[in-house]
Protein 1
Amino acid sequence: MTPSLLSRSRIAAAVFAIAAACSFTGAQAQKALNWGVVADVDGMDVHVVSTISSWQIYQMVYETLLTTDKDMALRPGLAESWRQTSPTTYQLNLRRDARFSNGRPLVAADVVGTLERITGVEMNPAGVAAAKTDEEKKKASNRIASYWSRQFGVIKALSATDDHTVRIELAKPHTAFLPALAHISASIIPVKELKDGSFDPTKRLLGSGPFMVAAHKPKEGWTLVRNPHYWRKGHPKVDTLNVLVIPDEAARVAALRDGRLDYSAFTNPDIGRLVAGDPRIAVTTQSTTNYWRMDLNALSDKSVFKDKRLRQAMNLAIDRDAIANIVFAGAAKPDRPVPAAFGKDACKDVDAYKLPRAARLEKAKALLAAAGKPTVDVELIAISTDPIYARIAQVVQQNVRQAGINLRIQQMPVAEYLNKVFTKGEFDAALSWLAGYSDPSMVIAWWNPKFAVWNAVYHEYSQPLADALERVKAAADGPERDGLLAEVCRMIDDGANILALVSKVDYIAHRTDTVDIRLDPVTGSSNAYQYVAEYASKR
Amino acid sequence: MRLIVFLVPRFVIALVTMSGVALLVFVALRLLPGGYADVILGPYATPEAKALISAKYGLDEPVALQFAKWLGALLRGDFGLSMVTKQPVIDELLRRAPVTIELAVLTLALALIVGGTLGVASAIAGASGRRGALGRLVGALSASVPEFVLGSVLIFVFSRWQLGLQVGGFTPFMQDPVANLRAMALPVASLSVFGIALILRTTRDAVLRVLTEGHILAAVARGETPWRIVRHHVLRNASIPVVTVTATYFGHLLGGAVIAEILFSVPGVGYYIYSSLEGRDYAVVQAGVLLAAFAFVSLNMLADVAYALIDPRIGATKVRT
C-alpha cells in the first residue's frame, strides 16, 4: 500500500469510527419510532380537510375536548369532566395543565374561539372591515366552512365562564353533541395566536397533542418530536415519531420487514398472509364503526335508479356475505346503516338483512319486472387509488347479475369521482365508505340530504325520514331511541339510496421486536392510534 | 460564430415550445374534472365550503385572468405556492431535483453501459452468432417488459426474501453512500430496462449502417485491427443517433420517472408532480411540468450542440440551408 493510500484509508477509518460513535450515542439518547402511512395530508387545516389520511397525522399533534373508548363511551380529553345541566346546556371543565406546544396554557377562550371558527364565525373581523376592495376582504377573511359544524347541532350560546370552564347552549336537544366534540375535526387550536396572526392553521399544525412538527417534507414524510408541554407527564414515551409516506403496499411490507418501519396500517386483508413467515411482525385486526357503502343516484334523469323499485332491487340483490368473505376473507361483516359496531340491532329486521339470499333474489327480480325492466345496465364507479374498491365492485357485479342487473365497472381517480358524484351528480352507482363516528345518530344523519348537503345532488329528500332523524338526534340513548332507530332503518331501507355493505376493518401491522403499541379492538372516530403517546420503542 | 447562428433559431423554437407548454398545462389542469376544493374538502363538501376555498385561492376568477396572473408571477421568477402547504413550490421541486437527477443519471449510465455494449457487440457479430442473438433477446425482452411489471416483481422478490437491497425509500448519497446505492438499485434496474432496449437497438442499427460504408472497407483493406476500426471509425460516426435517443431518454427521466418513484417511494420530482396532480395542487403541477419541459428542451439543445461538435458538417449544412 502506498503512503498516500494508507493515509487515506486511515482518515476514512477515523471518519467512519467518529460517525459510528455519534450515531451510537444518538441512538442511546433518542428514542424514535417510524410509522408508515399511505398518503400525506391534503391540506393543513384540521377543521376543513376531511380525508382520513390527513386526520391520522393531525391526531398526533392536535387534541379534542373528549375522546371515546372501545365501547364508544366518552372519555376525558382536554376536558377532564363535563356536565349536561339541561337538555340543551353543557358545561365543560378543562384540564388546568394542558398547554399548546408553544408553551402557552390552553384556556377556555381557545375552546370558544375554536368552536366559533368551526361554525363559520369570521375570526378576523377587524381585518375584513378595514379592507377596501373585495379582493382585500377575501384575503383578510379567516372564515371557514367546516363540514363538521352540522354535527354540533345549532349552537345558541357559547361562553367562557372562567379560564377553565366553557358553557355551551344548543338551540334544541342534540344527543350527538358531545360525541361530535371527540372527532379530530373538532380539535382545539390556539385561538389567541390565530387572532394575532402568529399562527395560520392553513399553513402549519400547532396543537396541544403529544407531538409537534419539527419538519415536513410534502408527500415524503414528517418528523414529529415530543411536545415538551404535553399535559400527560412522562408521555409520549418516544422523542421522535418519523412519519414516512409510502403509498405502495408492498413497499410498506418490505419496510416493515427490513426494520425501516415499526408500524403501519393496511386495508388489504392479505397482509396477514404476506407477513406470515416473519415472526417479528404481528397483524392486529381493528374493527371500526365505518362501513363500505354504495350510493345510488335517485335524482338524475339519466340514472336508472331514479325508479325506487330498481334501487330496492339493487339493495336486495347485493350479497353482503359474499363481499365479506371473498374480499375481506371473513374479517369484515355485513353492515347496516346503524353500524353493527355500536351493538345495536336496529336494522336487522329489514328485508335486505333478514331474508335469505334466494328470497331476496326473487324479490329483486319481481321489483325489476314491476318496473318493466327485467334486466338493466348500470355503471358503477370504483375509485382507482385503492384496489379494494375494484374488488368489492367485482363481487357485487357477479352477485347482482343473478337478479338481472348488469354492472359495468368504471374506475377513476378520487378528484374525478368526487366531482362526478358529489358536485355534478352524473352517475348511476358509486362505491365509497362512511365514517360511523362514535354515536349512531351521527352517521344516519347523512340520510337527510338537506342536513348533509354533500349528497343533495343524488339523494331523494323524504320529509318523514328527515323528521324521524331529528327525533333520533334529540333522543337520549336507551330503548326509546333504539325504537326510533329501527323506524329510521325501515325508511332508509325503503328509500334504498345509500346502501350499507360491509364493515370497514383496518389491519395494523407492527414489529414486535421494536415497538410496544396499544390498539383498541374497535375504534369510533377513525382514531386507530389514539394511544400513540404510550407507544414505546424497544430499540 | 457558426455555432451561434446554428443555435439562435433553436432558442426561438425553445421559447415558443415553453410558452406552448405553459399555456397547455394551465388550461389542461383547469379542464380536468374535480378541483382542489373537491379534494381538500372530500365527499362532505357543501357548495358554500367549495365556494369559500375557491375564493381563497382565486380559483373563482376567469381562467384567462388566472393564467395572466400566473404568467406574470412566473416572469418575475415566482412559481407560486403549494395550495396544500402554502410553501413556495420551487423550493420543494429544487429539494427533490437531486433525487430525480441521481435516479436519471444512474439509470442512463446503466442503460448506456449495457445497451451500448450489447448494441455494438451484436452489430459486429452480425445476424448470426451468440452475441447477436443475446443482443436481440435482451432488446426484445427489455422493450416488452413494462417498468411497473418489472418493478412489482422486484419489490415482491426483494421484500419476500430480503436479498440485500432496500425496497423503497431513499437515503441521501452524502449521508450514507452505501445505503443510497442499496435503495437506488431496484428503481434504477426497473427504470433502465426500457433505456437498455432503446440504446441497444439504436446503437446496433447505427453501427450496422456505418459498417457498410466505404471508409470501413478502406480501413479493413489497410489492415487495421477490428478494435481500432470500431474505436476510430465506427463509434464516432455511429454516435449521432445514439446521442439523439440518449438526450431524449435523459430528458424523459428528468421529467420524472413517475412509476418507479411511486413504486419504490423515491421522493423525486415525478412522484411529487403526480401526487400533486391527484390532489389538484395546481401550482405544483404547473411548475413541475414547466421545469420538466425546460429540462427536455435544454437537453435537446445540448444534443444539437453535440451533433455540431461531433460532426462539424452538420452546423455548416444547417446554416447554408
Protein 2
Amino acid sequence: MSDRIESQLARMVEVIDRELPPITVDELNTIQPLPAKNRSNVFAMVAAAAGTLLIVGGVAWFLGGGAATESADGLEVTSPLEFPVSELSPFHLEVRYQLDPAFATGPDGVPEDLEALVTVSYGGPDLLRVDVNRSVPLFFETGPPHEAAGSFAVWNHDDMAQYYPADGTFQLHDQRVFSKLDERGFSNLLDPLMWGTWEDLCTFGEHEFLEASPVAGRETVRIRCASLSNSYELWVDAETGLMLRIIGQDIPGNLPTSAAGFTATEYEVLSVTYEPEFAPDTFSLSAPPGATVFDSRGVDQSSPEILPEGATVPVLTGQFLDGGDFTLADLKGSRVAVLFWASWCDPCLNALGELVVVAKERPDVTFVIVLIDDRPGDASAVLAERQIILPVVIPDGLSRNLHGDQWGGGMPLLVLVESDGTVAAYHFVGGPLDLFQAILRDAGW
Amino acid sequence: MRPSFAEFVENNEHELRHALVSHFGSDLGRDAAAEALLYGLEHWERLSGMKNPCGYLYRVGQRWGGRQRTRRVRFGIVDSTQDSWFEPGLAPALESLPVKQRVAVVLRHGSDMEYSDIAHLTNSKEATVRKNVERGLAGLRKAMEVGE
C-alpha cells in the first residue's frame, strides 16, 4: 500500500463531503411540520426487555401527516415530521401479544415464545403504565420464565417502577436505567422522537398498501413491508395513527426453527379508548401491600462514572460454587465477561440464557457468573435445570442489587473486563440475544 | 449569549454529520444528521441552553438511525478521482469495525478532530477515544492487510 491509512481516511472523508453536501438551515427549513391538529401519529408499542420480560421498554413513535400528496393508490403520502409526545392524547389499550421464538425479525426487543395480554395506559407526557394480565409460554414449558400475571411497570416523569409478583419485589429506578438499551437500537419509552411517513413505517424492504378492515372498531390503514426473508403487516388507526395490529411472517426455511414458515399476529389491540378516565393512582409509584421495595433512584446506574471504560475494575474475590477460591485479578491476561446475577431476579433469568448462547459462541472470552445475595441452593437448582456450565462465584461482600458497592447498582449487570484489568464495557442487560452480541462487538471483542 | 441555530449549524454541522456518517455509513448517516438537526431547529430554545447541544443531537441522530431496520453500515462511495484516491478496501474495512472504533478513527483521522472534541461530542473520556482510535487503526490495518 502506497500510503498510510490515516491519509486515506482523510481523502475518503473529502469524498464523502463532496458526495454528501453539508446540511444547511435552508434545507432544514424546507421540511416544515403541519400544525398539531393536522397530525396523525402512529404509536407502535412493542414490548421490550429493559430488565423485565414483558414490561414495555420500547415504544416507537411514528408520525404520519405533513405535506400530503396522493400516492398511486390514493393513500396519503407524507413528508417526514417530528411528533412530540406532549401532543399525544391519553389512551388506554388492551393488547394481545403472541410471539414465536423463531420469528427473529419481529418488533425490536419483543420477548419471544409467549402469549400475553397486557393493558397499556398512557396518561400524557411521561405517564405510562403497563399491566400484565396474562402471560403463558407458547412452546417451551421449561423455557425462560415469563412475566407473571399481576406484574406491572409505571413510568412517572423522571422515575419508573417495576413490580414482580414472583418474588414480591417492587423496584424503583430513575429512567437512566434504560438508556443503554436505547443506544442499541431499542426505542426509548419516553423519547419524543420518531420520524416517518406511512411508507417509512416499512423500515426495511419494500412496502405496499393493502385493503384494510377495522381493528378494535377503528378504521385502519394496512401496510405490508417485505424483504426476501420476512415481512410484516402494520394495521394503523387511520385517524389517530395508533398501531393496532402487527402480523409477522417468516418465509419458510429462513430460520432453522421455522422450516415450515411462520405467520402470527404478534401484536393486536383488542380494545382502545381515547381520552379515558384513569383511576387516581394509575400512575402512582407506590408499592403494592407487602412488597419488598428496592429504591435505586439517585444511583446513576447508566452513567459511565460508575465504572467508565478504561477504569481499573474493583477487587472481586469469592468462592466458586463448586469449590475453590476466586480472584478476578488472577484472570488478568484474559478477557473476562462478568455477569452479576441472582436466581431471585426475574430479568436475570432471562439474561442467563442469552449469556450462555454468547459464551458458546465466544470461547476466547472467560464468562463468570457472580451471585448477588443468592442462596447457593437456589442458584444451583436454576443453573442445573438449565444445564449452565459456566463458572459461578459467590462473592465476598457484595450486597443485594450491588447498591453502594464499587460495582454500581442494578442487575443483571454485565461488565466486560479487558485483559489488562480495565473495564471494556458496562451494561445492564436482560434483553434479547443480539443485545449481548452487540455489547461484545461494540467493545471490540 | 446563546448562539443562534444558524451559528450552531455553521460551527457544528460538519462534525455532527461526520460522526453520524461514520456511525451509520454514508447514506443513513447523512439522513440521521439531517433528522437530528431538524430536531435541533424545532427545539433550539431548549437545546441552546445545554452544555453540549451537539452531543445531544448526536444522540438524537443515533436514536433515529438505530430505529431503522437497516442495520448494515455502508459507505457507498463511488467517487475515487486521482486527487482523492483511497484504497478500495478501506470502506469495507471501516464497515467491519465496531461502531465506537469506527466513529473515533474517522473523526480523528478523517475529519481531523482533536481527541478532546471527539470525547465531548460522543460523551466519552478522552482516554477511551484514544483507545478506540488505536484499536480502529489496528483493525483497519488488519482488515486491509497492511503493516504499521
